[in-house]
Amino acid sequence: MSWNEFRPFTDYIEIKPFTGHPGNPGEWQAKLAPSDLMHFSQAEGCFPVSGGVFDYKRKDESKEPCNITCGVYFIRVDDESAKKNEETPSGYYDYIGLSANFKKNNFQSGIFGRLFDHYRKLVCLPARGNFAELITKYQLGEDLSHLTTTQKEQEIREKYKPLAIKHLKDKQFKDYDELRDYFGASHIENDINLYGTTEYFHKVFQECRKRNNLNSIDGINEFFTKKVRIAFYEHNFSGNSQFRLNADGTPKLSKDGTPQINGKWTKFIEFISKGEGVALATYKKKWGMLPFLNQRDELMGLDDLPEGFN
Q1: Strand pairing category for 46-48 and 71-77
Q2: Backbone φ, ψ for residue 300 (5° rounding)
Q3: Mean pLDDT score, 39-65
Q4: Of 187, 182, 139, 190, which Cα lies nearest the Cα of 161?
């Protein structure tokens, strides 16, 4: 097993508009030019290239569904601002990550489930799960940050979410920047978690938008074709469940009532986690620091060795 070569993001992912391509239409709708009123797209408009390695609907020769593609992946963003930046000695904005997860929806699982979320951050689109609170704060004028999480969720569910859905439905956005501003992008430094991005992804967006058209779907597609590349090594789970199963397919339970974990699953998770660790260590050895887009606080204190080590 080894890394594949870097290839353009769009070799693997088809990028469609932020609205108009839902899987199962949800509650949120908007008018994003040039389209009329549309539901928001599944996976932020990202879809695996049909028949490709991330296509979770593809079939193998036995006609059985293929495994979700998991493993370690590497995203590389090519922008002039990274060439002479002390924080990017590789000359690129890089990110190394892993995915060994299986979620309820296949499109949210595996490496593809991670890539479409990184796409969203690179083009600075708001997190779908936070639409209601963002609209409540920046359009309805109600800041709920003083409430506990439970209180806030109840207030949004019972009072503000229906108002937010209607407010958004009535809006017309001429481009992506107008939509970003509607959700509070101009205040993102104060609400970076609520918007659903990170300090470093936002820095990269701010730099890349100076030299690239990230304000239209055509410009975004051009950017991800010419400036964003991905590499990965694939490692898939060979079992049929993360749990040990009874004859009827239900999970076997431990004495405390929790499902018993399949030993194959444990080894699968360990292998991918170690793979990411080795990749990050190798990167730091080569460039003297971790990839720019990796969260620094997640790894703080773990990118060195104890005092006295020799």
Answers
A1: unpaired
A2: -55, 130
A3: 80
A4: 139
pLDDT digits over 159-191, tens only? 999 999 999 999 999 999 999 999 999 999 999
- Predicted pLDDT of residue 216: 96
Q: What pLDDT, on a 0 to 100 scale, did the predictor assign at position 253?
A: 77
- pLDDT for 165 equals 97
How many residues in the chain? 310
The domains of the chain are located at 7-124+197-299, 128-191
The band of 64, judged by pLDDT with boundaries at 50, 70 and 90, is: very low
Give dist(CA 138, CA 292) in Å, integer.
30
Span of 21-25, 73-77, 235-239 with lowest mean pLDDT: 235-239
